[in-house]
Structure formats: structure tokens, C-alpha cells
Design a protein that fits this description.
five-stranded mixed sheet
Amino acid sequence: MKLTLRVWRQRNADAEGTMSTYQVDGISTDMSFLEMLDTLNEELILKGEDPVAFDHDCREGICGACSLVINGDAHGPERTTTCQLHMRSFEDGDTIDIEPWRASAFPVVKDLVVDRSALDRIIQAGGYITAPTGAAPEAHATAVPKPDADFAFEHAECIGCGACVAACPNGAAMLFTSAKVNHLNVLPQGAPERETRVLDMVAQMDEEGFGGCTLAGECATACPKGIPLFSITGMNKEWLRATRKVAKR
């Protein structure tokens, strides 16, 4: 395959960015999108040019590091992570636009790399359990109803990639935050901090400068792990419940 790539290049957070055009040839349809970028970078290095900086780690669709907007879609045209997107999803001769996540809470570090530590700080605000549990308990020591277990597992699948933020027209992080809140709040182990968790995580989300949610639904559409839109409704109910409980004290 021969492709035209229009790639966002930005030397650092303070520099002006621009789209640069490159030609790549000999791209196999079996390559992943990141392998195609590796090929581009090898050519740039041989020419003595600065390679394109982009995030990646496991390349197995688990870590969520591969944050790219491809032709206007977070992670590209398939509902998967960028590392699991293969070049057979494109046609020979295509022009592909490659950009970083676009959100005020995700400042550009260099080229396609953005600082997503805002998501880490949301988790640090309450996405944990502080109750001492000692050694690993016997599997059936604490009974969890299957609907609750399924609900928790569904939300635990969130890998924190930030595609929901990139896809949202408002740059909201509600789907990510709701996944982290709902994952723990439904479990017995998460009950002691149920109220403080949702209040603290939502407050941190707002402090980070993410946009407001208007339920556009683009977040759930772009999520590579299929976190459902009703997760946001669940978190809103948790927040209202916590607010009312705190107000009565």
C-alpha cells in the first residue's frame, strides 16, 4: 500500500503545531497502525529528520497508551485501540490525518503525545479502597450478587485511554470517571467510601478542566472497551445520593 500521511507535528507544549505531509510505500495490510508509524519513523531517521513522537506500550489493546485521532475518530475507524487497528481498514492511496487527543485537560507534550495525568489524578481522588483487607480472602467469603459482579466487571474494563474525552464535543471525562466510580461503588469492599468516592472524584474531574457532559453519546461510541452510556446515569445517581446523605449530617 502507498499512503499519504498528514501528521500533527509540535516540538513542545509551547510551540506552534502544524500538519506535515509524508508519503509511505510498501505498507502491508497485516501491519498494525503503530507498525506503519514505526515504518514512517525509520524512514525519517534515515533521512536525518526528527521521528514522530507517539505514545505506545503493550500494543495488545490493554494499556490504553496508544492515543491517536485518525481521520477525525478516536483510535480510528474501528471500535478498538490504535495498536489493534490494522492497515487492512484502509485502502491503497488513502490520505490519513493523524492528530493527538484534543482536550484542554490533555496538553500536548510533543507531536502526538499528550499529558493524560489528569485521569490519574481523578483516580487518586477516590478510585481505591482503603479498608485493610489483609491477605487475599477466600473467594466465597464475601458474597456478591451476580448482577453486581457483572456490573462491576463491565466497568472495570475501562483502560483509561481517554478516547471518551477525545470523542466528546465538550471534552468531558464523565464516561471515564463513571466507570471508575461504578466499578467500586457496587462492591461490598467499596461500600465504606461510597459517598466520598463519587464526591471527590467528580470534584477532581471538574478541577482538571474537563468539559460538561450533555449526553451526546460520542464517548460510548468511541470507547474501545464498550463502557455503556448508562454508566454516566449511574454515577449521577450516586452523586445525588451522596450529596443528600452528606447534607443530612
